[in-house]
Design brief:
mainly alpha; three-stranded antiparallel beta sheet; 7 helices
Length: 213
């Protein structure tokens, strides 16, 4: 497995370097997300420029397992190419953004390499999926993905000949499926509750502030 992981990282690094931008963003342009001057500018494979941190943050609110869509042309961004001069920058913030860009590119490089990288990043993807399911502002509940995962878990449970889960007369596949649906709904309810608690806290904080004389 170590060899496979090294091959994934090496292949992604080669692709990353090969597609690295050689030009700079237009001088009279700005990031279309934050509308400010470019910070760690990078270009999508669609040709549009963004701040590295802005486009990565934009992806954080997109589908977990898919590349984000360009806010300008709606094409999927499968490769982010930072400005070439950034490779010589030594600031910690720049290094962190470049590392995240490389990680993003490895996820969506495609083929077997991209699939293996997704397996490697599975904890991150699952964490993001849970947060998305708790977010009341998103319409994606990942019913399809979670139910497929539940089906795989039920298959493993049956193959291992376990019997510690009470089924109540239902098939084990049905039990896992209903459990997955219940988990999705519970996470959404928890997310709505957290949002309401946060709104109440903000109102209380605003009411407690003294009025200016």
């Amino acid at each position: 497995m170590d060899i496979t992981t090294d091959e994934v990282n090496t292949t992604a690094a080669v692709i990353f370097d090969r597609n690295e931008a050689v030009e700079t963003p237009p001088e009279d342009d700005c990031c279309p997300i934050c509308f400010s001057s470019f910070t760690v500018p990078c270009r999508g494979n669609c040709g549009h420029w963004y701040c590295g941190s802005c486009i990565l943050q934009y992806w954080n609110y997109a589908a977990v397992s898919k590349p984000c869509k360009c806010p300008m042309c709606v094409r999927h961004i499968t490769m982010l190419s930072p400005e070439a001069s950034l490779q010589q920058r030594q600031e910690q913030e720049v290094k962190e953004v470049l590392a995240k860009i490389r990680r993003y590119n490895r996820l969506f490089v495609g083929g077997l390499t991209g699939f293996l990288q997704k397996l490697k990043e599975l904890p991150l993807l699952l964490k993001r999926m849970v947060w998305h399911m708790m977010d009341p502002d998103t319409n994606t509940l990942y019913f399809h993905e979670v139910r497929i995962f539940a089906m795989l878990m039920s298959t493993l449970y049956t193959a291992a000949e376990f019997s510690f889960i009470p089924t109540g007369g239902f098939r084990i596949v049905t039990v896992f499926d209903y459990t997955a649906i219940a988990m999705i709904l519970i996470l959404r309810v928890v997310g709505i509750y957290r949002r309401r608690r946060l709104a109440q806290r903000v109102r209380h904080t605003a009411a407690a502030e003294p009025e200016p004389e």
